[in-house]
Amino acid sequence: MLPLLRGRIADLSAVEAALSKRLSRAPAGVLNVSPHRGGFQYFRATAKTGRKGEYIPEEKMSLAAAIAQRDYDAKILAEIQRLRWVLEKCVEKYNVSIAENLYAQLHPARRSLVTPLVYPDEDFVERWSAVKYAGRDFDADGPVLMTARGERVRSKSEIIIADALFRRGIPYRYEYPYELLLAGAYEAGAHELGAARGVEDSHAAGDHVGGARAGRRGGGGVLAGRRGAGGRGDLRARGCKRVVVYPDFTCLNVRTHREFVWEHFGMIDVPEYCQNMASKMEMYLQNGFCMGKNFVMTTETHDRPLNSMMVEKMLEQLV
Prior knowledge:
five-stranded mixed sheet
């Protein structure tokens, strides 16, 4: 909420500055309007001309327009200044941490019995990171590629992404299983699908883990710990199949307590791979994943490998 309020204040301040600058260049005088033969006549009143003012001929209507615009801008500026003042007072008095502070102040014996409205960031991250799951198996003869966090991944590009997340302190899960609903039209093109192995019962479809409900902040995105996403009622009604996908990374935005999926597609110059990618993207979209909201992706080709600078810039925008 606070980032939204501060962003709105910044927007209003920018408009206020632009209006003030325009008003400083506006012509002086009062615009008088009189009915005349089914239309209107315009007069500019100043200290020299008196109350009625000097007639503004047709060829100088830009002057009338400038005075009218000035009066409109002045009224809008006053409203913007009033609204900005209200929002600044709201930010000043708004205490986003009240629920977290109350929970943190509880005796540990009581804290273990309470489900807080919002978990403190540290507690939430700990619960989210402690979730147990089984990812995909590695081929016995596959390359052993390790991240800075000491986990095995499948490509050098995944090392770049994982290490960037680790450096920034962004919690993530590698190849965490998500149960999705798959429409028959996309079944043939979907890849990396299969049954989850060894996933705990708490990961059943629709269940929440990692303190999801209590940790919810803001709007949009996937509830942290949730298997899958919303907007799937129409798919269930059509009797679509349940499948499990293993996104490359499931990341947690600590500030919002929301998670997002990060898929890396590493061979988009291969036609068959690109077709599979398109099918998988459609499946994600059907299951409520939206690009830039709770889903991001990176790509590469043989000639254009993943750029670590691009990954860093993406993370700056995301969290």
